[in-house]
Amino acid sequence: MGQWLHWIDLLGVAVFAVSGTLMAYRKHMDGFGVVVLASVTAIGGGTLRDMILDLPVFWVQEPDFLYAIMAAAALTIFWLRFTHKFPYQSLLVADAFGLAFFNVMGLQKALNYGATPFIAIVMGTMTGVFGGLIRDVICREIPLVLKGELYATTCIFGGVLYVLAQTMGLSISWAMLIGMLATLSLRLAAIRWHWQLPVFQGSH
Amino acid sequence: MGQWLHWIDLLGVAVFAVSGTLMAYRKHMDGFGVVVLASVTAIGGGTLRDMILDLPVFWVQEPDFLYAIMAAAALTIFWLRFTHKFPYQSLLVADAFGLAFFNVMGLQKALNYGATPFIAIVMGTMTGVFGGLIRDVICREIPLVLKGELYATTCIFGGVLYVLAQTMGLSISWAMLIGMLATLSLRLAAIRWHWQLPVFQGSH
Amino acid sequence: MGQWLHWIDLLGVAVFAVSGTLMAYRKHMDGFGVVVLASVTAIGGGTLRDMILDLPVFWVQEPDFLYAIMAAAALTIFWLRFTHKFPYQSLLVADAFGLAFFNVMGLQKALNYGATPFIAIVMGTMTGVFGGLIRDVICREIPLVLKGELYATTCIFGGVLYVLAQTMGLSISWAMLIGMLATLSLRLAAIRWHWQLPVFQGSH
């Protein structure tokens, strides 16, 4: 199963790298800007998680992740050069898969480390959403995750189910599958029906 | 004394969480945005301090801090829903208490770790001000701490007195009390009489 | 050689601190804002590198670096007070020296730690450019490094030559010299002839 997980993990990284590349495209950045934004989006959350838990940062040990980012960025650039349009809807769906997988990886890594379930849910969510948050901050956008359709909330939902599954004695594989499917389906439903958390109506 | 310190520490975290929630309110963020901004403001400085000193990040071990943040954010939201106004002046005073306490906690943690007094003062100040700085960066504000009334400077002042007190042979409790009162009173005076550092008059 | 390297390292830190101070000047920040921006620019990249590699953060052990930053910031402020103009061209050249040296220090530190050549090149580049990136994010500028003249690319170029030199059996001193000269001369050429990476022409 380990090998299989590794490939999905690489795919998740690649999908997030594509989203960083798209943002760099909109912001007229150069080649290095693309690499930085793609990398920050794809590995920012996991890097912060590993630094906070004081674990070895995952991509330092396995440069595969950086190769996946560069390949994804290069393919995206070629695509944009030729078509000048982008399948945003497909990207949203792919991004939902990446989010679900990152969430579960973060949950598992934190629980392995000995964190409490509550902290594990925080870490899973952070793994899923922090890269996109840093991407938006670098590009001077109010981070999408803080005001758009259900996004981080789907990670919390998946995390709670993951923890419940483990508490009820299910194996790690089942817990991971349940957590992943829960995150994924809530996120896809939010995209489809534009579900949102209530937004504050503050005066200024 | 440890128990007593812990409660004040939680209070400091809660006050900073309120300030993050207020910013999220002004920026029309959703529920998750509130949680992120409240958390970043309240534990951002301490997290960076612990990562730089390579100590275990404090809230990973003690989820109490995250509960305090959520309670503070929820109460703030309820308050805003009902009143649509906020006691800014009281918040400023409470924030000054939080700042003073965070400063002293950062100083003590760094000195315990074996840092030099100079580095300890840097760490105390970083603990006090960095969370607010990240909050402002996420919200695309020029960080208040970099141009407003005396804020970080009060941490440096309190830190110098803390270190002097220890050098003169006073006990840790006395040094903490002196550092805290120095930070607090200078900050309250700055709020009251609008003391500022000179601001650059650059062209552009 | 160690002593000599240390002085150049301090000089690199000072040059980057000057660039942070200049940005604070343009943004009308106060004295603490100057210290924060100067510090973030000068030690941000190295701090992130050390946290990611889980090494002791370099300036915690050697406060010399912070003294160099403060001295550089203070001198810059005095200069600006008296002249109200600044030798930007000389600063660019000095900055190129700082960049080249930071790149080589990052490369060496990562290789010593046991990183692969690829990761070492990433770490060298990160050491060189990340401080400036954070500086620009704090000041709400689209980071210069992501869209201007060749900057990060010169670090990658220097890093590749450094690694090639070591692979061919040259001593560390020679590899450092080659990497540094390669970074420096490509950067100076980019400044002189305005070499850029192609910038995306994205629509909105």
TrEMBL record, chains A, B, C:
The chain crosses the membrane at residues 6-25, 32-53, 65-83, 113-134, 146-165, 171-190. GO terms for cellular component: plasma membrane. It is found in: Cell membrane. Keywords: Cell membrane, Membrane, Transmembrane, Transmembrane helix. It comes from Bowmanella dokdonensis. Belongs to the UPF0126 family. InterPro entries: Gly_transporter. This is Trimeric intracellular cation channel family protein. Coiled coil: none annotated. Residues 7-79, 93-165 form the Glycine transporter domain. It is a multi-pass membrane protein.
